[in-house]
Amino acid sequence: ITDELQYQDATRLGVTVSTAEIEAGLDRVRKGYKSPQAFEQARRRAGARLEEIRREIARNLKIRKAYERAVASRCQVSEADTAAFYKENPQRFVMPEQLHILAITVGVDPSGSKQDWENGRKRADEAQRQLKSGSRFEDIARKYSTDASKDKGGDMGFIHRGRMADEFERATATMKAGDTSDVVQSIYGYHIIRVAEIKPPEKRTLDR
């Protein structure tokens, strides 16, 4: 009952959650299991569809956001307190290194058959071959990608280190600007990643 009242309050406050936030929450749930396969097995045993899990995640996120908004509205910090905190905690005001990422994603349903995964790998390998033969990354992304970024030539914009999926973090750990990865597998399918640009860490000033 309490959760339902909190959810109703969140709805009245106009609290919303984005698709990206829901997918990040789902990714955290998956990581609570030993492997993607273990997550799928548990999901099937429970008879839970992915959309049902996403709805529950969205519900919990709305309740948490409403709570945080209510708490924040009661908190007031003076300019002097802000300046003191900034001076005493300089490491908290450093923007991490950012990577300008382009990606070709050949999506495969996590619960797909072995043949589905083999077909996805073949498609990703073919995309990689065309890249190595000199084709433009953006053109191959538009041709082979299955996610929304294909309309922008695979351009995912700048992403902070530590904010990407684990597979992307590992693949880009030693990449330099202009490098393109091998085919990378994740729970969502297969990916080819290009680092277009790298922005070094940046110290934020107090006014921004």
Structural notes for this entry:
The chain is of the alpha+beta class and 208 residues long. It is 50% helix and 16% strand. The protein is built from eight helices and six strands; from the N terminus they run H-H-H-H-H-E-E-H-H-E-H-E-E-E. It has helices at residues 2-12, 19-31, 36-46, 50-73, 79-88, 114-132, 137-144, 166-172, and strands at 94-95, 98-107, 155-160, 184-186, 189-199, 202-203. The strands form two sheets. Strands 3-2-5-4 form a four-stranded antiparallel β-sheet, with helices on both faces. A hairpin with a 2-residue loop joins strand 4 (184-186) and strand 5. Helix 1 (2-12) packs across helix 4, helix 2 (19-31) crosses helix 4 (50-73) and helix 6 (114-132) packs antiparallel against helix 7. The longest helix is centred in the first third of the chain and has 24 residues, at 50-73. The chain is globular and about 60 Å long. Mean pLDDT is 86; it is low at 1-5.
**Spatial shape:** globular
Q: Say how many strands there are.
A: 6
Order of helices and strands: HHHHHEEHHEHEEE
Span of the ends, CA to CA: 42 Å
Amount of beta strand? 15-25%
Biggest sheet details: 4 strands, antiparallel
Look at the helices and sheets and give the structural class: alpha+beta
Based on CA atoms alone, the radius of gyration comes out at 21 Å
Q: Report the helical percentage.
A: 40-55%
Compute the number of helices.
Answer: 8
Task: Round the mean pLDDT to the nearest integer and report it.
Answer: 86
Low-confidence stretches: 1-5
Strand numbers in spatial order across the main sheet: 3-2-5-4
